[in-house]
Design goal:
The protein has helices at about 20-35, 35-65, 65-80, 85-100, 105-115, 125-135, 155-165, and strands spanning about 5-10, 15-20, 135-140, 150. It is mostly helical. The chain folds into two domains: about 5-65; about 65-165, Arc Repressor Mutant, subunit A (Orthogonal Bundle). The strands form two sheets. It has a two-stranded antiparallel sheet. A two-stranded antiparallel ribbon has the order 3-4. Strand 1 (about 5-10) and strand 2 form a beta hairpin. Helix 3 (about 65-80) crosses helix 5 (about 105-115). The termini are far apart.
Length: about 170
């Protein structure tokens, strides 16, 4: 069976098959293209390729988050810490109670946010003062009024626990 040619294309619900001589296959394919189906197929293939690339990029970005950042991000998401004050409270809990740090300067807190791919809070003093007013944070008198030594109070821990239960 020399001189027999065959082409088969299947993309989603679109299918094209042709068998015969080179001229017959070429004519049927030209007709298929004229009817606009080829453009639809190539658009679908392009969309599928773009979706695969986007998915791969998203997976790469998620994998690029360091383990520490991913743990903090998980805490923020699981506890539904939506506002910056609550996220700062969560960060202080994470740094002090999970990682065991005694000194949490702004650069350490901001770095934690950046590692989690969460927008850093910026003016930490503002948020720490708000949390102190709500009695969620306290600073031991031996440290004066230095925000870097802020610790969660029982009310602050209870607030995070309640957020986690929702």
């Amino acid at each position: 069976m020399t001189g027999l040619n065959k082409i088969s294309i299947h993309v989603g619900e679109f299918e094209f098959e042709s068998e015969g001589s080179q001229i017959e296959v070429d004519e049927k394919f030209a007709q298929f293209k004229e009817e606009g189906f080829w453009n639809i197929i190539t658009e679908r293939l392009e969309e599928a390729k773009d979706m695969a690339i986007d998915s791969s990029n998203s997976a790469s970005e998620e994998n690029a988050i360091p383990a520490r950042g991913m743990q903090f991000r998980t805490l923020v998401e699981n506890c539904s810490l939506e506002g910056k004050p609550e996220q700062v409270l969560g960060a202080l809990h994470f740094l002090r109670d999970v990682e065991g740090l005694d000194d949490c300067p702004p650069r350490v807190i901001n770095a934690l946010f950046e590692e989690a791919n969460i927008e850093p809070p910026g003016n930490l003093s503002l948020y720490i003062n708000r949390l102190r007013e709500k009695d969620f944070l306290t600073i031991d008198k031996k440290h004066g009024d230095k925000n870097r030594f802020a610790e969660l109070t029982d009310a602050g821990r209870k607030h995070l626990e309640n957020k986690a239960k929702r």
